[in-house]
């Protein structure tokens, strides 16, 4: 799949602050790797984030799985963000009506909108979910991804559902910066530009026993035209050297992108 523009050059296609920052960061740091940091203790979380930090553009969190979450974790996460120059994506997968998600985004224990540059939502409830999140996030310079597809076996997010997600994103271009999907969803010649992030990426295994399906960085970036690989257990799975694996995925992702530019 041919690539007409480099990441950094695409920044001007977006009015959204988080999208512009992310695309520039990817170019500056030369990495299209996002780490999915699904561990359940603060100690592991901070240790892995510090080790993988130099190799990633985006740290993806599931903040509600931490058993010992506290405000200090957020403070330390922000320090790591500055130290290593990455952005933060809370994978909250909002899925309720606008009024509810507005509170879930800004209030409660986690106050996601205060520290997460990017979050995501299922388009399932209709446009109200985007409007609700936008009321909170836009003025803070945040960006939203819509889950247009999922990597898990039997996902219902296909066909007309995926098409409807794209149309929803087009109606909210100021706040919706892209998609969770397995492939590029709209052409380079389209008037709109969206960042595609793909989970379900692994170099060593093809599934996890609970429905997750893995493809390689090459499949995802070069052959399917996605922009960012999201890798979790491939990097911090048992016995792995975090820095070595993070570098390996960073290199594989960047190599796939470089080949796409040359094609
Ligand atoms: O369709 C999806 C969407 C997401 S955001 N499939 C996914 O796996 N994810 C997330 O990506 C999932 O919640 C997890 O945090 C990460 C994949 O982790 P891994 O350990 O399987 O690489």
UniProtKB/TrEMBL annotation:
Positions of substrate binding: 38, 60, 151, 212, 232-233
GO MF terms held by the record = orotate phosphoribosyltransferase activity; orotidine-5'-phosphate decarboxylase activity
Q: Active-site positions, per UniProt?
A: 91, 93, 96
Gene3D superfamilies this protein is in?
Aldolase class I
Name the keywords, alphabetized: Decarboxylase, Lyase, Pyrimidine biosynthesis
Q: Domain named Orotidine 5'-phosphate decarboxylase: which ranges?
A: 32-248
Q: Which family does it belong to?
A: Belongs to the OMP decarboxylase family.
> What's the name of the protein?
Orotidine 5'-phosphate decarboxylase
Biological source species: Rhizophagus clarus
